[in-house]
What does this fold into?
Amino acid sequence: MIELIHVQKSFDGGASYAVADTCLTIPRGELLALIGESGSGKTTTLKMINRLEEPTSGQVLVAGRDVLEQNLQELRRNIGYVFQGAGLFPHHNVARNVAAVPELLGWSKELIEARSREVCDLVGLPFDDYARRIPAELSGGQQQRVGVARALAARPDVLLMDEPFGALDPITRAGLQEEFRRIQQELDLTVVLVTHDMTEAMLMADRIAVMQGGELLQVGTASELLNHPTHDYVTQLMEMPRRRAERLERLMRAAE
Amino acid sequence: MSPVLREQLLLLPEYLQGHLALTFAALGAGIAMSVPLGIVASRSPRIRHPLLATVSLIQTVPGLAILALVVAMLGGQIGFLPAFIALTLYSMLPIMRNTVSGLEGVPAEVVEAARGIGLAPRQRLWKVELPLALPVIVAGIRTAAVWTVGMATLSTLVGASSFGNYIFIGIQTRNLTAVTVGSLAAAALAILLDTLIGSLQWIAERRAIGVGLRELRRAIVLAVTLSLAFAMALVFTLKPAPKPDFIVGGKPFTEQYILASLLAERLTAEGFLVEQNIGMGSDVIFNAIGSGTVDLYVEYSGTIWGSFMRREGNPGRAEITEITQTFVRERGLNPVGLAGFQNRYALAMRRERAEELGVVSVQDLAPLASMLSAGGDLEFFGRSEWKRLQSLYDLDFAQELTFDAALMYTAVEAGQVDVISAYSTDGRVAAYDLVLLEDPRQALLSYDAMLLASSAAAQDPRFTAALAPVLGAISDEAMREANKMVDVEGRSVSEATAYLQAIINKPR
It folds into this structure.
């Protein structure tokens, strides 16, 4: 569904690379987590998929077509995008935020309303209660639900998510993570999720791609990364959730 | 209602219309230019700096100077156009600056989201960036509107009527009622406009955070009501102004108001449709006659000699009249003739003070000058005859202070200055009991009142015939008496005009 072929990105004319020679294939229906520290190149890699950034060299294919050969706005309208901190339009109410992409695509009023109702219900915001609310009246978690609804409104096959749950409190985050995983499987979405939280990656993703300093170090399922890490950095990354899990288990046992 | 107030209020529709038309035209043009320029500037840092620096620079030039420069750039054209251009330039800075900062204040993540979901650059601007920047832009327009209303009063000086007519003519003729009416009218207009745009700003602010129109009903009703009121004011005061046959001009002081009104009356009596355009500066009006935007006014030979020809020396009254008439003819202006009186500069002191110091002529002043302070009108100390006066009599005053003409007289009366550059036909000379000092060495020039006409007017025999009775008919005494009626006795310009008409019409 999404293919990165020897993709490189430099912001300084080749003196240094934010993303260096990366190859990655994400099959249809997979949720891939891109994980790394800030500056690792994970967000740049994500943005190259819908051309918010353009690769310096290499190719990005979505559904088999080179993104550079597609109409820029059309490409973006066909790919859902969930932003860090939701990025809702503060001057539009929930209904208009959710309707943004279908409006751009020229859907009919009735169709837009029906679809908005559907996606709002899907993300757990009853349309009749929330349609007229404005972003400033919503909690962070509710705003991000609207963000997800907006990304899904135009029935995209591909969804890009840039640290979507990073700004939420732990309880809200856990709830949304689970709900989103259910939606993703239900709709058979191909998702690239950028995160710096290994626990989140392990709980949500089919596969995890680890990046460091612009290099893609290893791609694999959580158990592959745990059992066969190819780099020390991957081992370190996997250590933390493992140690936390062990400590938690001991605490739970003691409590029983 | 007092007759003085009534007389002033009758002028209100004309001045209101002038003021409203100027304000709205300039503000409209200012918005039409500044918002797009602000958008461009916010997109490109390379343009932003020079652009904002340029409009800031315009803003630092005093309003009066901008007006004068625009008139000069238009080749001496006066009236609505130069005032409109100057006001437009003046209104640009706050609008452009707020457009730039408003657009820059749109949260980066919102812009990124707009790009990410596939809004094209133009859609991003119209659907996201401008609506979010609008409150800041409207605040800039609000600032510009209040400035423009204030500065529009200055356009009187380049011949565009506004509430400034009340203020400038009121100051010169010591008509406090006129000054008050003008100031209150300008202030009220500023407050109303501020309220209107303030309510628009309030609406834009609420809209930018997604509040529905229904909750903004009150502000919308207020804004619509005020807009309708402005529109009605414009329409009601908009009379289909017929094109006048001749425009009579005048400089901003009492004598000129009386003379302009007198000349206009003579031409009207001959059946011409005449408009008065008074309150312009010497340079402006001299050029306006040349370009035909004013048809008639009274200039003084000494002013032409000293200010326009930049000649020094004093060849005597007859000679100056002769040479200056030749000069204006060469410039394409047409001297119709002399009015009879001259209004020259003369040093003047309070009688009491002059007697106390034993001063009769300028000669007597020289040894005392280092202890005395002198007051001059806005031009006097810059003129060559002042230099000549200094060198011929070896005058060196302790202080030289510049005043508005009306205030100069009050200053000498109050003893703040000892000597002033009085005008020989000024009614205030007698009223304040001033003595004019003799000038035995003829340092000061003669200033014969000279009627100057545009070429178009001068070719009309009925025009010259209508003015013929005025020539040579107004003596120094008659002019001084007419000035005194207005400046000292507080009577209206039309009464003083009637007094002069009676003298002219008296069989000689």
